[in-house]
Amino acid sequence: MGTFVTLAEVLEARGSPLEEDEVWCLLLATTDALLDISKKGSGNMCSVLSPGSVLLSANGSLAFKSCARYEDVASFTAPEVQQGHATSTRTAAEKMVVYSLGMTLYWCVDYHLPQNQPVQLSSELEDLLLSMCEDVVMRRTDLLTVLETCELHHKASMLPPAERLVRQLVEDVYRNSVSGS
């Protein structure tokens, strides 16, 4: 499988937020990976993702650390989880991970921005992230809708394959660690 770096390590190495096209590619890749996990049964899917639990591989694939107990993940945790509601269905588990992924990617576009500087996103991406971070579960979007939106955007914008971007982000981390910057 190769060596993995976390999304947090990618941002630390570059010292600046992700750009819009990078967010679209990552959103497509993570949603695709999460849907694969979801098909295997909701017991395999962790309800909380964070910048420290999304793993990027040098071969362009993604993986996720098992359920986060290794860092402060409260800000990435869906409100219903924080309120102690148990997940009873696959849909409920999926909605929690959608929230968590949305918050994780918001963190990535807001990384090291001065507090008074707004995040620079297209209304299309901002609306999608907001629908993912919706506090009310019933109004929150689902993984399939996120995937379809990303695929449409990907085709319309003629973005490179998501795997290529993931490989590039991993290479950038290694390049920075070797050069000692």
From TrEMBL:
The keyword Repeat applies. Pfam families: KIND. The keyword Phosphoprotein does not apply. Signal peptide: none annotated. Gene3D superfamilies: Transferase(Phosphotransferase) domain 1 (1.10.510.10). It comes from the Eukaryota. Keywords: Repeat. Residues 5-181 form the KIND domain. InterPro entries: Kinase-like_dom_sf, KIND_dom, NonRcpt_TyrProt_Phosphatase. This is KIND domain-containing protein.
